[in-house]
Amino acid sequence: MDMGSVAPASGAEWIGCAPHEELRRGNRPRLPADDPFYVPPAGFQHAEPGTVLRSRDVELAFVGLVPQKLTATQLLYRTTDMHGRPHTTVTTVVAPAERSPDRPTPIVSYQCAIDAVAGRCFPSYALRRGAKAIGALAQLEFLLVAAALAEGWAVSVPDHEGPDGTWGAPYEPGYHILDGVRAALTYQRLNLSPDAPVGLWGYSGGGLASAWAAEVHADYAPDLNVVGAVLGSPVADLGHAFRRLNGSFYSGLPAMVVAALSHVYPDLDRVIQEHATDTGKAMLLRVQKMTTAHAVLRLIGMDMGKMIDAPLEQILQTPEVQHVFDSIKLGTTVPTPPLLIVQAVHDRIVSVDDIDELSEVYRSGGASVTYHRDRFSEHMLLHPMSSPMALRWLRDRFEGRPLDEHLVRTTWPTLLNPMTYVGMARLVKIAAKVVTGRKVERTPL
Question: What is the CATH number of the domain that holds 99?
């Protein structure tokens, strides 16, 4: 591999590589921890955020098995961690072959619900042909990536947790997302325009990451033309979510958050080492190697209060833990892009009260917020059922259609909206092409 040379400080590309060397059929992709592509070159710290450090074309496949008739480009790029230090991560970019000649091709950054520490859950691995990532949600969310591509949009799918899987860390996902868009827009082979309208979209853990990107956009990446962000059931308050989910069917989710955050909050790790039992410490080590679904199914009903040597609430009230909970809560900055927030009232994972509060914080701070507060759906069902609404809303933002400059709260359930089923019929056709390996062509409404 030709490692190239240093590019201009504000340039698009630092290092090149043979663009098709990763497309040899039969190659099983290596996990990120074992793949030299993810290792940044010496001196990357001096590059500007969003600078491409390395690139390659890869084959994508639905659930790792059904090859897709498209070429995806992966970019290793310089970004920033939660402390403002130079960092790197990878995005996987797909772009439509057919482009409108009279305007820039829009780009959507789609944030998968990684919700795990293990590298096999990162989209840059899980979406590839031959990936062994059973239980990684990104493999199913590729259906929505394909739906965005069918609109004629380019799609960036970043590893927004970074190379270490820091699930739940604040600010950092936003930096990773926005720099991934910068990298895609300035990478010449993709032939995208730096002036392209940008949309953000994610659900659950992906909604949380998208919210961080919306919050940091104005200060961190004002050069990007972000015209809207869809925040599907963002985990607005991870501290509340921990108390809500511990000991429940979904207790594996807070366990993975604790395991991830212990690596970036030394005081939290000290509390864990001081108070966790041997069983608790072993569990936190095991969960870091699990995919999302594996952790949820393996740890049903687990109570972390039984894995420490003091009452759980006493530990949660310590200054060290409270500092973590306070710092990872959304709402410290009001986003400047228009927002569509989608939340189920009967959500067993993310409390509707937290999203009510977040929506009001954003609105009272001057944000343009459209809030779909769905009365019938629950967390898992609302994701696919709200996708037609999300695509329509992003389409309107890319077309420059006007939006009300105040909170719009809707309660009419998606299940009772005829437009949902019109959109779902279209999504089913796209999904059928994906699962059978047929080409997904541009079919905008």
Answer: 3.40.50.1820
